[in-house]
């Protein structure tokens, strides 16, 4: 037995969380890896087309193939995220998910050798499907194995691993490293490395005690898992909490996505979960990274890619700041601070871009605004929406809620990716005012409607929603989810 620690952190808990967030690291790596070698990969597509058709590829066709190579990642994530509720009930679901990572990584890494852009596109789709499942499974697993007083801090590690993965991809994508015409297949195929390490480590990690007891009804195994995670021989308090949650779940029964939308009791937490996901994707963070290179160039930097990597480093650094603050300041407070800071930076960015040609010094103000925007994003809207969804729901509806929230996140990711170029062309620098207005709306929603979940058990949070009138209507609510679902659902 491990010695228990005052903080509640044991080597088994550290190993389990680290192993889980390797999936998040891989997800981030695949978000960032495709940008650096764009020109080189497009040249390879042209060479493949020339070999097949004895003619150079048309620019419109090349643009379509490249756009598909990028966007198919989000489509894969969008589709698989809706399956999180089903997959989460599989034994060792995250291990099984690695099959998609190995297959996707192999297809991308061998695309040049196979002279096939189809392999590249299919590989991106599979790695996107892997990432969609990761975005639901990892926060759920980490939330379920974490002590209540550490749940927020450990939940932030999903986002930290994700931004570190993006940063690693940016660094490895440099021309002097793997972003060369010869080594770009290795750059893309390297994504299988975290999966390989995860497969080695997972057999040493316990299953979620909540999954074992509440879903699988295996009390002795759940107790053993709790002992390993906490380092304590007496886990009766945690087991009592799970028994109460299971008792309520037996009344609730399993909740499907359809039932989640139908049942009034779930509408308030579901609305909060979805809006928080929207606040992440519609905040303008992707727009900031889109503009960053051109702004850094206008500031006179000869190698703007290094400034972009610097922004990525700030991304990671302020996620660490959020990790240490989330259990002190609370989720709601950090989210409000992040949204307000991003809104101010978006307005400053707009003014700086408008006057950029007339006042050269504005380029430096733009740089400060970029770094500030990224920092505030990682304090609140970056990490918090991912793990707070798992906190808002009890065990019964949690998988379905994670699937809906993840699906909304990936869908918005895809829409922004497809629509932002047209928005930027139509609005120019004023595009950031659109994001400032959205951020103001999200700030007001969070201030008036989002509860603080710090230091509260899953069951306490769920009970609070059962006592609180819904945001969507003020009718008399059924007293239990069993009444809400109706006799047909529980036959």
Automatic annotation (TrEMBL):
Membrane topology: Multi-pass membrane protein
Regions that span the bilayer: 65-87, 94-113, 119-142, 154-172, 184-205, 270-293, 305-326, 333-356, 362-388, 400-424, 430-448
Chain ranges of the Major facilitator superfamily (MFS) profile domain: 16-454
Subcellular location(s) of the protein: Cell membrane; Cytoplasm, Perinuclear region
GO BP of this protein: cellular response to insulin stimulus; D-glucose import; dehydroascorbic acid transport
Catalyses which reaction(s): D-glucose(out) = D-glucose(in)
Keyword field: Cell membrane, Cytoplasm, Glycoprotein, Lipoprotein, Membrane, Palmitate, Phosphoprotein, Signal, Sugar transport, Transmembrane, Transmembrane helix, Transport, Ubl conjugation
GO MF annotation list: D-glucose transmembrane transporter activity
Main location group: membrane
Keyword rRNA-binding attributed: no
Keyword match DNA repair: no
Pfam families per UniProt: Sugar_tr (PF00083)
Cleavable signal peptide: 1-23
GO cellular component entries: endomembrane system; perinuclear region of cytoplasm; plasma membrane
Family: Belongs to the major facilitator superfamily. Sugar transporter (TC 2.A.1.1) family. Glucose transporter subfamily.
Entry-linked NCBIfam families: SP
Job description of the protein: Insulin-regulated facilitative glucose transporter, which plays a key role in removal of glucose from circulation. Response to insulin is regulated by its intracellular localization: in the absence of insulin, it is efficiently retained intracellularly within storage compartments in muscle and fat cells. Upon insulin stimulation, translocates from these compartments to the cell surface where it transports glucose from the extracellular milieu into the cell.
Protein name, per record: Solute carrier family 2, facilitated glucose transporter member 4
Originating organism: Chelonoidis abingdonii
Gene: SLC2A4
